[in-house]
Write a structure and sequence with these properties.
alpha+beta, 20 strands, 6-stranded antiparallel sheet, about 25% strand, 2 domains
Length: about 450
């Protein structure tokens, strides 16, 4: 349709966005096999649309110039090209090739069998000068009830001249209107901060935000004391957990590469909490059926988190948070996986040896599932019941209505209930089973900032 409309009226190809808009507008108001006895517009809005205002795209259109916008001997109309209908009002959208401006008007007379004579030189100038969405402020009519009143397009034709911009018509009649054109940003950019008008000092301050980016390569991180310390802590956790053992690579065996990932962790106030170095396996080199089988692992839905918070607020319970250090390192592996020795920690005299994994490592395909199986087995052993509809939600009940609810999201978990003794027992048990960090009351979880007060719980 777009190609045919442009060809029929010999319009420059630079008008393709307008042709697309009009094509979609027409198709939405045309019969289709997708919905029976209705058009897509009617199926969506429930109101039968009118097509009385339809005109041939690209035809010659004569726009009336109000008396207040012209002198006695000036033309009473402008010859324009129809580009469809306005999205902001019940009026037509037209293009004036003389002044190269978009005009919105209802007071229009059409010659649908005629088309504009576009010469080659002028087409080239349009390609350079025409900027879609960058026209002058135009007449805009409120369009809150468009669904049932599209037939009003022509009925209210006489009221449109008052809404026409004085600049758009006065400059359109001036032969020198192309000179010194005033540029305005598109309407949609009002929702964004562009930084225009900032002083040089402000720009430098904004650029300073990106100055402390995390390192990507081991060579860069090894030059910093804080990142070396972070890597030492990661290796200490791996060795303490009995994650691997150093062995010779079996004949025909395949080793998986590893790399260091560096991340600066921030708290809810945007302050640096810690520098984290994570040793990650290059799981993308693993082969299904050889290095892994099942990989699916469950995580809590955000609706579940909100429901737990809402329940705690209603019952005036406190919500606490725990973090499992190096959670994936606790997952038991069923497959035989070998990884290379990490950069900076290759053992002297054993450079050709590899590590055979006893437990999962971050980056492995099966690591999330192995961790979930591990933590699920612990909860069952500790006497928790699993929710039938949310498999990451566990709860334990005791006499006299005492209850403990735990929601798990990978290595972060929150818990709430009505018995402080059960809280203490749960935290001690978790710390004995895993390497845990007690974060106290829930303050920052999955991007949610949580404020717990006596009058309720506030999240943002």
């Amino acid at each position: 349709m777009v190609r045919s409309m442009l060809f029929e009226k010999k319009l420059p190809k630079s008008f393709w966005p307008e042709a697309v808009n009009w094509t979609v507008h027409v198709l939405n108001r045309s019969p289709t096999l997708a919905v029976k006895n209705k058009t897509p517009k009617e199926a969506w809005s429930g109101v039968k649309p009118s097509v009385e205002y339809f005109r041939v795209f690209g035809c010659i259109s004569h726009v009336h110039v109000p008396d207040s916008k012209r002198t006695k001997l000036d033309d009473k109309s402008l010859s324009c090209v129809l580009l469809g209908v306005s999205e902001e009002s019940k009026a037509y959208r037209l293009y004036d090739p003389t002044s190269q401006r978009i005009i919105i008007s209802r007071d229009v007379v059409f010659e649908e069998d005629k088309s504009w004579n576009w010469d080659k030189t002028y087409e080239e100038s349009i390609m350079c000068d025409l900027e879609w969405g960058d026209h002058e402020p135009e007449a805009v009519v409120s369009d809150e009830n468009e669904e049932g009143n599209e037939s009003d397009l022509e009925a209210g034709i006489e009221a449109e001249e008052e809404n026409l911009s004085s600049d758009s018509l006065a400059e359109a009649s001036s032969p020198s209107s192309n000179e010194g054109r005033s540029r305005h940003p598109p309407t949609w950019m009002r929702d964004y901060v562009t930084g225009e008008g900032l002083s040089e000092e402000d720009n430098e301050a904004h650029l300073a935000i990106f100055a402390a980016t995390d390192p990507i390569y081991f060579e860069d991180a090894s030059k910093s004391e804080k990142w070396r310390h972070a890597m030492d802590l990661e290796m200490e956790a791996i060795n303490k957990n009995g994650t691997w053992e150093l062995v010779e690579l079996p004949e025909g065996g395949k080793k998986v590469g590893v790399k260091w990932i560096y991340k600066t962790k921030f708290n809810e106030n945007g302050e640096v909490e810690k520098y984290k170095a994570r040793l990650v396996a290059k799981g993308y080199t693993q082969q299904y059926g050889v290095d892994y089988t099942e990989v699916f692992a469950l995580v809590a839905r955000i609706e579940t988190i909100r429901l737990v918070v809402a329940l705690a607020a209603q019952r005036k319970w406190s919500i606490y948070q725990l973090d499992v250090k190096s959670a994936f390192l606790h997952g038991e592996l069923n497959e035989e996986v070998f990884v290379e020795q990490p950069c900076g920690y290759v053992q002297k005299g054993h450079e050709k040896k590899v590590y055979r994994l006893k437990k999962a490592l971050y980056g492995l395909k099966q690591a999330p599932r192995a961790w979930y199986n591990r933590i699920e087995a612990y909860f069952q052993k500790a006497g928790f019941e699993k929710c039938d509809y949310e498999h990451t939600l566990f709860f334990k009940t005791r006499k006299e209505g005492k209850i403990l609810i735990v929601s798990l999201y990978v290595d972060d978990l929150i818990f709430t209930g009505n018995d402080e003794l059960m809280f203490t027992e749960f935290k001690n048990s978790m710390k004995h089973e895993f390497d845990m960090t007690d974060l106290g009351k829930m303050r920052y979880f999955l991007g949610l900032e949580v404020l717990q007060r006596s009058d309720g719980i506030f999240i943002s």
